[in-house]
Design brief:
The structure is a single chain. With 303 residues, this protein is α/β, with parallel strands linked by helices. The chain contains eleven helices and twelve strands. 38% of the residues lie in helices and 18% in strands. Strand 1 and strand 2 form a beta hairpin. It is globular and about 65 Å long. It comes from Aliiroseovarius pelagivivens.
Length: 303
């Protein structure tokens, strides 16, 4: 029996990326429109090229030109998605969607949201909240989610937002680490550079050790090249094991501090007023669950 599986199965997101990339003839501009990182756009294009067995763009240094095949595909995608979007709007206008899709980083989900998740769920009167997590928000198309916990609201200036967590950053260590290195309490600069644990902040502009030392008006150590943690929960676990000291964010480390699993060292600094925002799509007629979610975050905000 002939298979009824569509050849585009598993490629729908990549097809949407292709249409935007062809329209702009630019991967960076496609990334900007879609709210993705440029590497994520490149991965989608590479996936399609692998499945089709041919290049979809001619590359010349930093310039790309879509092939005729890519142009044909983009025209078909534009037609198909245009029809789907229209039907979607018509259906959504007459239904109450009892689900909210929320995007956030692994660190925020693990340290801030999960301890409160039962309370959030109970506040939604039976509606479902689906959490999408990632180590880099640039890899998620935020235009496809109802709300996202972000540190930069400029990517979607037309979406409303509320402040969640006041920005405050300070060094943290475990009790066993302080016992092994008691001198760090008087002078954090006394530690060997290899005992400073680093978090990969990507393109977020989040605080790093060099920036913290600059804002604290302290001379930094000569940091050697070292591995960076790409997920904050892993960094926090390393601190709790006594592997070294790291930067702690108000709101993310409060639970561990209250349980005595980590200790606060050195001065607090900040380079912004707010470290996290909840940004959401504008409320519409079917947005009861989203309104309840935003209200819950407003009440739970650490400001």
């Amino acid at each position: 029996m002939e298979s009824s599986k569509r050849p585009t199965t598993g490629s729908l997101n990549s097809l949407l990326v292709l249409e935007v990339a062809v329209r702009h003839a630019s991967l960076s501009r496609a990334a900007e429109e879609l709210g993705l990182s440029q590497p994520a756009v490149s991965r989608h294009i590479a996936t399609l090229e692998g499945r089709l067995g041919q290049a979809l763009f001619r590359r010349n240094n930093n310039q790309i030109t879509p092939t005729q095949s890519a142009v044909r595909m983009a025209e078909a995608i534009r037609l198909g998605y245009g029809h789907v979007d229209q039907v979607w709007k018509e259906v959504a206008a007459h239904s109450e969607r009892a689900e909210v899709i929320l995007a956030c980083t692994y660190g925020f989900a693990d340290q801030w949201l999960m301890p409160k998740f039962t309370d959030l769920r109970d506040s939604l009167d039976g509606a479902r909240v689906r959490v999408v997590t990632t180590d880099q928000l640039g890899d998620i198309d935020l235009s496809r989610v109802d709300a996202a916990v972000v540190w930069d609201t400029a990517r979607f200036p037309n979406r409303p937002f509320i402040p969640l967590i006041k920005s405050e950053i300070f060094p943290i260590c475990s009790p066993s680490f302080l016992q092994a290195y008691p001198e760090v309490e008087a002078d954090i600069r006394s530690l060997p550079p290899e005992l400073f644990l680093h978090f990969d902040v990507g393109g977020s502009g989040f605080m790093t050790w060099p920036k913290w030392f600059a804002l604290a008006k302290l001379k930094p150590p000569q940091f050697a090249s070292s591995a960076e943690f790409d997920a904050y929960p892993f960094l926090l676990q390393s601190v709790q094991r006594g592997d070294g000291i790291a930067l702690g964010w108000h709101g993310l480390v409060d639970e561990a501090l209250s349980r005595g699993e980590i200790l606060r060292l050195g001065p607090s600094v900040s380079d912004r007023d707010v470290s996290y925002f909840l940004q959401h799509r504008p409320f519409q007629g079917e947005s009861r669950a989203l309104k309840q979610t935003v209200t819950w975050f407003q009440n739970a905000a650490s400001m």
